[in-house]
Amino acid sequence: MPLTEPYDDHLPPEGRAAVARDTGEVGGPAGSDEAVTPADGGVEAATDAADPADDGAPEPEPVLPEPVRQRIVTLTAAVLPGLPADEVPVPLRRVAKFAPNRRARLGAPAIAAQLTADPLFRQRVSARVLTDAGDLGAAVVEGTAPAAADPVEVAALAYLARPGGWRDLIEASGAAVRAEADSAVVAELVREAEQRATRAEHDRAVARVEAEKLRDELARVREELGQQREEARQLARTLREAQARERRANELLATERGRAARATADSEAELRRVRARLAEAEAAAGAARSSAKEARSVDDARLWLLLETISQASVGLRRELALDPVDTLPADFVAEAFADQPGTATGAATRARDTDDPARLDQLLALPRAHLVVDGYNVTKRGFGEMSLEQQRKRLITGLGGIAAQTGDEVTVVFDGAERIPGLPPTPRGVRVLFSRKGETADDLIRRLVRAEPPGRPVVVISSDREVADGVRRHGAYPLGADSLLRRLARS
Questions:
Q1: Which residues contact 408 (CB under 8 A, 6 or more apart)?
Q2: Which of 111, 220, 315, 343 could be cross-linked to 438 through a Cys-Cys bond (beta carbons 3.0 to 4.6 Å apart)?
């Protein structure tokens, strides 16, 4: 809606003249017979001629068709940045800074309101728009629009310039727009009708094709139905034959069941006979075991008598040879040779493993008069390497004392050392502790101990050194790995 309030009282004369023309005050100030001279002669003259005041009241703004309103906003938004800053109304200064593609879209309400309420602003916009329009703008100012011109463009220029008969131009443009819209609607209706007709023709063609397919499908279904009926008759005949075979099979099954029952009865009778024979055989076996036990008792008595005879013979032989019991064993002679000349050993023997099974060690120690020889540091460094040498020796000697007490065997432990080391724990009963002398290693001492034993005596050597194990094995000893003794000590 147009605003009826006049523009600011501080407007320049040409602005007040434009306001006067829009409100019907086409004359000069009160008491003067002269008209206000317009700023733009052609445009203002046309405006003065077009809008004479009838009774002094401003005419209402015409209702603009939507295309015309959009075109007016677009033209105004296009020339808005080109106006001087002081000629742009305050509400539109922010709109003038928008991007061209956003100015008309986002600032349309403010632009339309300012064109209605500010005649001077509309005059400045129309001057620039008419200049850009060229011949079409001049024709619109003169009130004669070319017949070939766009009615929307003509109406927009006429609204901005407002020459004589501008309302008629807008009405004519509205009529043309409406006629064009009606033509477009009619064309759209015709196009839709043609499309419906095309779709109907297409649907009829599709329906004919579908009908043909359905007829073919019906024929195929009928043919399949005939085949199914024939198959049903064949299946019924097959079923009757199968039922007849089933009856015959049931009869045969009943016959076989009778035979199986008779065979089961015969098998049970035979089983009873076999069980009776088994009982007789078990009784005979018991009698045989009793006889064998009596025979074994006789054999045991004979064996005992033989062993007793051998024992008495060995006692007589010892008496005849005048062999007195000895307190010194072969290893003691080797120990005496090393007691006064302790030696030192250089280097470290390489480790090797023969077997680490503690059960094997138990079996060997269970032999009569067995001699256990232990490579001391080879065992302690493998099992107690985190301890000091003194603690290693103490722990090993204490453990060997327990084995000697349990088995009653002779136990010798050999350490490398240039001299007898002070601080040794008391030697347990049955355990001999030796140190190698200077220039000889514990491995050499172990081999000498093994060679000193008589053939046939069980000697067990504990060392993971492969050279030691191979050397003592050649002299009839039993080499075992250090882990076998460590596990035996851990179990104790």
A1: 430
A2: 343
